[in-house]
Specification:
The complex is a heterodimer.
Chain A: E1 3-5, E2 10-13, E3 19-21, E4 24-26, E5 32-38, E6 44-50, E7 56-58, E8 64-68, E9 73-78, E10 87-94, E11 104-105, E12 109-113
Parallel strand pairs in A: 2-12
Antiparallel strand pairs in A: 1-4, 3-9, 5-6, 5-10, 7-8, 8-9, 10-11, 10-12
Chain B: E1 4-7, E2 10-13, E3 18-24, E4 30-36, E5 43-49, E6 52-56, E7 63-69, E8 72-77, E9 86-93, E10 102-103, E11 107-111
The chains are: A mainly beta, B mainly beta.
């Protein structure tokens, strides 16, 4: 079965600094991969998604992610963070061709800024 | 989020019965219930496609889903347990093979 690992429970940087949130997946083939953001007491919003193709995908609000099959990774990046980026970020995977596009989420990374 | 509406937004219960409601205005064929417990990621409970229950994860029998039409999803809960305290998200996608999900804002259930 597929699984997702987000090794960093918390990441804290200064405003204007760059951000990288790590995601590793476990699946023998090439899955579909997603990054979602969850602001306090709100639902999940899709930032970006990877379907097989260009390994670098662009998302909303300046986010991008890079798929690496050799590393089984799908790390999220942003060049310069803002206070509005303070949230929990979830990496998720689904397996194509199964007839059931269940999303399996990682445990999430809480991102905050140094005041 | 007016694309998927969930009600109620908040729910505080003792050991009672209650139903959560979800309606999507996207014309999607697949609908889902996810449960998110505190400090945990969302986990799939049920998946419907064209009103047919496709997937039922290991969910206690006191949770009964219902899909009266392709745009509506209900979750009936009987004799809630404190471990049921969580946020319940409804989501939809164009069909069961398409992973372009849209999530609702969730119903926050607190069992006291």
């Amino acid at each position: 079965a597929q699984s997702v690992t987000q090794p960093d429970a918390r990441v804290t940087v200064s405003e204007g600094a760059s951000l990288q949130l790590r995601c590793k997946y476990s699946y023998f083939g090439t899955p579909y991969l997603f990054w979602y953001v969850q602001y306090p007491r709100q639902g999940l919003q899709l930032l970006l998604k990877y379907y097989p193709g260009d390994p670098v995908v662009q998302g909303v609000n300046g986010f991008e992610a890079e798929f690496s099959k050799s590393n089984s990774s799908f790390h999220l990046r942003k060049a310069s963070v803002h206070w509005s980026d303070w949230a929990v970020y979830f990496c998720a995977v689904s397996i194509p061709g199964t007839g059931s596009n269940r999303l399996t989420f990682g445990k999430g990374t809480k991102f905050s800024l140094i005041p | 989020n007016t694309k998927i509406t969930q009600s109620p937004r908040y729910l505080i219960l003792g050991r009672a019965n209650k139903s959560l409601e979800c309606e999507q205005h996207l014309g999607h064929n697949a609908m889902y219930w996810y449960k998110q417990s505190a400090e945990k990621p969302p986990e799939l409970m049920f998946l419907y496609n064209l009103k047919q229950l496709i997937r039922n994860e290991t969910v206690p029998s006191r949770f009964i889903p219902e899909c009266p039409d392709s745009s509506k999803l209900l979750l009936h809960i009987s004799a809630v347990d404190p471990e049921d305290s969580a946020v319940y998200f409804c989501a939809s996608s164009p069909d069961r093979t398409n992973s372009d999900y849209t999530f609702g804002s969730g119903t926050r259930l607190l069992v006291i």
